[in-house]
Design goal:
The structure is a single chain. By secondary structure, this protein is α/β, with parallel strands linked by helices. The protein has a domain at about 60-145: Nucleotidyltransferase, domain 5 (2-Layer Sandwich). It has 4 helices and 5 strands. Strands 3-2-1-4-5 form a 5-stranded mixed β-sheet. Strand 4 (about 115-120), helix 4 and strand 5 (about 140-145) form a beta-alpha-beta unit. The radius of gyration is 34 Å and the shape is rod-shaped. The termini are far apart.
Amino acid sequence: MKIKRRSQKEEKTDLDLMPVISIMAVCICFLLLATVFVKNGALSSKQALGSEFESKADTSLSLWIYVENARAVDVAIHGGVAATGKTERRKISLANLKAFLSDVRSQHSQMTTALLFPSEAAPLASVVRVMDLLKQNEFKDVGVAPL
């Protein structure tokens, strides 16, 4: 009985796919961990033209306060049915702001929104003081516009 020996010319023709599979598994894990999970949101848009837009006029009023320095602020009332697009800014000292806000609330009881516009030169203490006065006068929605 003859023992068949492999000749030296025969080569192994099988492909070893294990290293490729392990690299792919590492890449998949990396991609899953590096993925940014985005929360899908909805944006509601209203019709800009047509009779539906005209019938639903915005009647809400808001108070805009421009904080320029530590002594005085400029105030303007925005919105309402009778708004013509032009708003009058009045300069009021911080000492008289509390009385002005109570007068505005007595004249416009439905006004609950205020927006602050601090300038770069406005001290933080003045901005916080104006926000406190707004909250004391029952302005529920107080926002600060970025510089």
